[in-house]
Amino acid sequence: MARHRRTPPDPRTGGARDPAGIRATDRGRPFRPELCRDRVDDAAGGARQGGSRVSRRPYPADIDPQSQCRLPLPRRDELDAEGQRVFDSLADPQGGSLRGLRGPGGIHLHSPELARHTRPLNRYLRQQAGLGGRLRELAILVTARELDSQFEWAAHEAEARREGLSPEIIETIRHRRDTGGLDEADAVVIALGREIFTARKVSSTT
Q: CA dihedral in degrees (128, 136, 160, 69; nearest 10)?
């Protein structure tokens, strides 16, 4: 019985055999990170003061107005000494977190032991792993897009621009465009993310 050879994946389209293949794997939901802009702006402001600022944007009844998640932010006085240390680090504008208590770190405080371990790991990956800010933000945007994480995209797009990502690269990632006209190193990172999260397999060429 003859065996059919599969067409090698094209790294420019993230492991799909053609650009339509990427669209076919999309879950069909519109990607609109601008809807999270209020939450991101509030996170950069009021959440630094312990989450006391309430969002300007109305949310469904099951969403907490301070955390803007279904779980409320823990109160500092309810945490043990280690939890309070992590809380203070997240609330500190110089603490290294883009979104403070409104980001993932605030939810981690529901399990202070988890927060104690994940905070140093996050700091290492972001600041000490040797990736450089531009590469780090490129990888974050690719991941956010392929996972349809609107909040993560909204939280990092401005940071990506500050680190030197061009509008062309950002729009290529956002709209899942072909990467043929980009620098090879950037195209490889985008292809890797697309293959991991969309094709679920990394090709040998990537």
A: -90
Per residue in 106-128, pLDDT (tens digit) is: 888 888 888 888 888 888 888 88
Query: HEC string of 10-59?
Result: CHHHCCCCCHHHHHHHCCCCCCCHHHHHHHHHHHHCHHHHCCCCCCCCCC
Determine the straight-line distance between the first and last CA of the chain, rounded to whole angstroms.
31
Q: How many CB atoms lie within 10 A of CB 134?
A: 15
Domain definitions of the chain by residue range: 15-32+132-199, 45-128
Residue type, 26: D
Instruction: Quote the CA–CA distance of 164 and 100 in Å, as a whole number.
Output: 23
Q: What is the pLDDT of residues 5-60, one digit of tens each?
A: 444 445 445 444 444 344 444 555 677 666 566 555 554 444 444 444 444 566 77
Report the predicted TM-score, pTM, of the whole model to 2 decimal places: 0.69
